[in-house]
Amino acid sequence: MNGEIHQQLLITSLGNGYLIHGTDASSKELQHTDSVHVTFTDGSQSWDWPGWLAYLRSIGCQRLMMVSGSQPEEKWQTSGFAGGGARAGIITLGAQQNRIWIPHWESRQFRSSVRWNITYTEQEQELGQPSERTFLPLSEVEMQFREVLQQIAALAEAIQQSFWKQNFFDPGIAILDGASAPRLAFELPDVYSDEARRLLNAVYKTWVFGAMGSWNDEPPYSAYEHGKSEEYEQISARLYAALLRTAQAAVNSVVF
Fold this sequence. Notes:
Elements: H1 3-21, E1 36-41, E2 46-47, H2 49-58, E3 63-68, E4 88-93, E5 99-110, E6 113-124, H3 138-158, H4 162-176, H5 194-206, H6 219-225, H7 229-251
Parallel strand pairs: 1-6
Antiparallel strand pairs: 1-2, 3-4, 4-5, 5-6
Helix pairs in contact: 1-7, 3-4, 3-5, 3-7, 4-5, 5-7, 6-7
């Protein structure tokens, strides 16, 4: 899973749990540590994670919604790298309208290790208004996601990359069908449905984009050898867009 997308899914879901039911939103991944330093700022003042949530509640924020820019499929090849992939941010709902918090990741040497400084800055909505696809019911999102997984599983087999079909795409489909799955990297608050959990588990299982050893590594050459480079490009882009759409639909499902 892309670390930047993962963090925004974490923030959106834990934040919604806190704003809706007052659920404990503490997370080691969002605490200030030697390796990660997460800050939120509106340009005049700054907060850590607990302070930001308290601020949002004080100004009447009721929900968080994760959104990404248009045509994310064009960004799939860079999605495994810091700063790559589709741009995404978190909209605060029920308070100031048309405001979005956009992250900026910066790495610095800190003591004997690298520390990521991540700053979420409040700004005018610049990713465009949420599209109609944002408001699709989870059942329809799941149907579309399943279709893409079936397509890329068939492609993996056709280009003799069955490893990906057997270890990622088929298990992802099985999770959608109700098969047990490894726990998410984080626990979704109780405000989320089992359907949302299932979809998010399937997304994490089938996120195959990265650099060395990923779906972006050897499969492109296999596709070329089998005369399926164009199909590989098209379906891979479609999968990336479906993963983003499904993940966002899951964590945004308590908004609508």
